[in-house]
Amino acid sequence: MLIGIKDITKLIAITIVTCCAVFVCSLFLNYNIDIAGIKDEITTFQAMIMYDAQVAGGKVIVGVSGGCLVLTTFIMLIFYVKNYIDSHGKELGILKALGYSNFHIARNFWVFGISVLIGSALGCIGAYAYMPAFYEVQNSEGLLPQKSPQFHFSLIFSLLVFPAAFFMLVAVLYAFFKMKSPVIGLLKEMQKVRVTKGKKETKELLFLTDLKKSTLRSRKILVFFVGFSAFCFSAMTQMSMSMDDLASESFSWMMISIGLILAFMTLLMSLTSVVKANTKTIAMMKVSGYSEKECSSSILGGYRPVSYIGFVIGTAYQYLLLRIMVDVVFTGLENMPEYRFDYKAFVVSLVMFVVSYELIICCYSRKIGKQSVKSIMLE
Question: Structure pTM?
Answer without folding.
Answer: 0.73
